[in-house]
Amino acid sequence: MKPAVAEMLSTLDLEPLEHNLFRGRSPQVGWQRVFGGQVIGQALVAATRTVDEERPCHSLHGYFLRPGDPNVPIIYEVDRIRDGKSFATRRVVGIQHGHAIFSMSASYQRVEDGLEHEIAMPDVPRPDELPDDAAFKALMIEKAPEAVRRYFERERPIEIRPLDLRHYLSNERLPPQNNVWIRATDRLPDDPQVHRAVLGYLSDMTLLDTALFAHGRSVFDRELQMASLDHAMWFHRPFRADEWLLYSQDSPSTAGSRGLTRGVFYDLSGTLVAATAQEGLMRQRPNKFAVSGG
Fold first, then answer.
1. pLDDT for position 153
2. Which of 39, 57, 96, 210 would bridge 178 by S-S if both were Cys, CB 3.0 to 4.6 A apart?
């Protein structure tokens, strides 16, 4: 297994401390705060370890309360709110320095048959028709801030192939829609719980950035303060996070210094396997050189 993927799986493999209590660590990659997708994945793992295996997670709803400190562990405390005949509900709080940094509710359901429908996958180029990871990596190293460049210069656990590179190459205002193919860069264990945790991890990538397409801005803009505020996911059908998934995203609104984004995941056969929604902070930093009038 590639070292970066092994490190990601190790990061998602929490240490049990006590009944309903787990400890997670953060990889030391130079970030000033913990990656939001890591916290989502770790919180999901903590909750899942308190639920019977025959009841997989079907939804989660989380709030980012404080920036995570990558230099200290995160303690996850699970509250077993309810175990019913079909559904189970869990609440998880991630704690650092004595304060909650993340709160999440997750729901689990026994597998059932029933009515089914899905919106068709967009008609887009396949991943093998797009520039490969090396080309995207070179672009990010050229355009991104130093901390992000250092991240892309390392081996990464997740590969992304955007369908449209204009957002990364210019300040052109674009429709607030984004399609990227995404997957883990190496084979993962067959356990479906691992694949849900990895999908939670990668679901925080590129999502908030989609809300900036309409404004010709990006998450690398130093004049913007960007942060995920909340995150929701729904798992609809089986999938593998180490096989290509189309992450089709849009942003219906930006207002009040917040941007709303939505996304759906399709596998290569066109099956819709999961969905996401997120609102994020998109605050313009005050211009320190502005002269105020009397």
1. 76
2. 210
Q: Out of 26, 105, 107, 278, which one is annotated catalytic?
A: 278
Strand, coil or helix: 142? helix
Residue with tokens 């479906």: 192
User: Is there a catalytic annotation at residue 204?
Assistant: yes
Beta bridge partners of 246: 181, 266
Digit-coded pLDDT (tens) for 35-86: 999 999 999 999 999 999 999 999 999 999 999 999 999 999 999 999 999 9
Q: What is the pLDDT of residues 91-104, one digit of tens each?
A: 999 999 999 999 99
The C-alpha angle 140, 142, 147, rounded to 5 degrees, equals: 65
**Residue-level pLDDT at 145:** 65
Q: Give the DSSP H/E element, type plus range, for residue 74.
A: strand 74-83
Which domains does the chain possess? 3-110+136-284 (2.40.160.210)
Catalytic residue among 204, 209, 242, 267: 204
Q: Identify the active-site residue in 42, 228, 249, 251.
A: 228
228 catalytic per annotation: yes
Contact assessment for residue 58 and residue 90, using Cβ atoms and an 8 Å cutoff? no
Task: Tell me the C-alpha distance between 67 and 35, whole Å.
Answer: 9
